[in-house]
Amino acid sequence: MYEKEKETIEIGIIGAGGMGRFYAQTFSKAGWKNVNVCDLPEKYESLKKDFEGTPIKVLPDGFHISRRCDWIMYAVEAEYINAVVKQYGPATKIGAIVGGQTSVKKPEIEALEKYLPEDVHIISCHSMHGPGVDPTGQPLIVIKHRATDEKLDLVLKLLSCFKSNIAQLTADEHDRITADTQAVTHAAFLTMGSAWRANAQFPWLLPHFVGGIENVKVNVALRIYSNKWHVYAGLAIMNPIAKVQITQYAKCVADLFKLMIQEKEEEFRARIKKAGEFVFGGLQKDHVPILLDDRILDEFSLSKIPKEKKQPNSHLSLLAMVDCWHQLGLNPYEHMVCQTPLFRMWMGITEYLFRNASMLDEAINAALYRKEIRPDDMEFVTCARGWAESVSLGSMEGYQKRFEETADFFRDQFAESTIVGNRMISMISKNISQ
Fold it and tell me: What Pfam families does this protein map onto (predicted)?
């Protein structure tokens, strides 16, 4: 299939980080003969060694990619997209197709419009997962911004080798949906990690962090912290919609905690019930749960504590998430076209909690009356506000410092949690595709 194009089309990737390498290797394995990559000029020699013995060609810099290639992808951090396109964009080959892989499309599209020649086509994309995830069946967003249908067809041919579910959106639609799905999801898991670190806790050693839902929380939080900080910082800080939502999440966490410590049960229950009905009340009876069963998730545990010794948890992070969606008037099910593996798991455990009456009641009672877990919940409130402030201030440096301090605390556990997390993602993906 596409044998002529595979022999003649020159593919160029500017930026050889995780996603840049992932794209290059995927194209090469699929039989595209002319795959070219570059990174910073000072990394040229080391990059050549990395790809030595492979069909992938390493070029000195973005000028060589721009002058040579028919399809060019900027796989650089969102923070630097403007500067990199400004440097290399004007040299782009006539008639080439150019796009980016950043998680925030507004600044990317603005840079491409500003610095690319008018005889260049703009079609961007975004694989909604990290480089360590099998792309099969995962969402892949394509944004035809300035291009002919013929050029779009070529891009779709190129990307077909990922075997992903391709959805076409505008840049604005993409940024709105990623804010609705990814930004707050990341903030919740980042907050969990920061709170555990602040309390000097490894959650898998504590009885109220035992069980299926807790396994998802722990494994996903560690998965995020095992990645590079800028992956999450760019999406949160450079997307103005995301800032609003992360701030709202922190507010919901604090509002619920205030009701908890005052033991205002009637008001607390009413607020949770109203939020739950808003998000989950419209689901049909034949709705297939994202998670098959809480018990299935037991096998993905890092804990050695027997499940029978499990103690109730408030699940403040999940209660606040549903409350946040309600306060913002968001229906997360409308955005499943752009579901990332992490969002899918986040939705899965949230849905499971709220659609299991006894489990939800146990969480509410724990939130209101289990004073021994109050210190954990208090730290969660503090850390949620801390992350929201970092994002609101637009502080990349503050975000990086907060992220890396927590990552260092959990670093020894990353290898095992990555293996367990991949198995968990695979299991949930199979459930959804059935």
Answer: F420_oxidored
